[in-house]
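Field: sequence (string)
Field: structure_tokens (string)

Example rows 1 and 2, in order.
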Amino acid sequence: MTQPEFAYAIGVSARTISSLETAGADRYDANTLALIEDALGWQPGSAERVLSGARPRLEQDPDLARLRASWSKLSPEARSIVASLVETMAKPRR
């Protein structure tokens, strides 16, 4: 996948991806870095690790990886439904 294809797939500009590689992670907000990490199946904080010369930490939970991979394709309504379901299921049961 080319930089423009990757950028389009995650909803950022190709210029953002290119300048991130040259300027570093401190120039971008956490949401942009999270989009990149999610698309690559990396754990949070991995983009900064890679830009500093370290290896990324790969996502360990396959269900979470599947959710992250499909998240950008969901409509805002579907995202809200999924988030509500997760919140409901995560509440302690009596």
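Row 2 begins here:
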Amino acid sequence: MQLGIRTGLGDDWLRIGGMKVYADGSLGARTAALNAPYHDDLQNRGILTYKDEELENLIADAHRNGFQIAAHAIGDEAVSVLLRSFRKLENSEKLRHRIEHASVLNSSLIEEISELKLVVSIQPNFVTSDTWIESRLGPERASYTYAFKTMKQMGVLTVAGSDCPIEPLSPLLGICAAVDRSGAQALTVNDAISLYTRNAAYASFEEHTKGTVTTGKLADLVVLEEDPREVPVSTISQILVLMTIIGGKIAYRSSKLL
């Protein structure tokens, strides 16, 4: 704090973001902390990285010193423990604290996330890569895994990323995965695009310079060969990027435009 290092320090090219905290592990390794055993490993509920008091103190210290918290929590038990810590913060909305992943949820957890005005950072491509979700969690919990649409309906501000290098970097892959999925949690194309643009800019305190095509903003843009809203949803990931513009200057131009 004495050095002035906190979230937001820097400029439009490089700045301090959130402080990453790991509350649990992963579903792939069966280390994500669940409130009931894994469906395919009945002796295992995953792990919590910190004791409750340790996590509470860590989050309180980061908050007090001006750091946005980006807390990795995949399992419902890990999310529940995090929420107990976030509930004790004063003026927590100011720093737009985030839960990274929040993969396994239920309606009561989503409601509390919404009430606390926490940001949830999701990785839509997990929907396509985690083919074993139902066998690992069982059908009931699987129905609330990657609950993108329910979070939107319940007022949770959700942003999206890739989790690269775990998943490929391309936002078009993530948009495709969020839209082209079975069940009730599929998003519209417009909603999926917002996860990577307007919502993401807000989560990083950059809504006044990025996130929408608006006069006075930085003009960080891409030009696509096709409109994602007009093609079959299964082909969104195949759309070609014709041009990338950063700060109003062309940084990449496809050979198709030469």
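free_text_note (row 2): Residues 219-258 form one domain.
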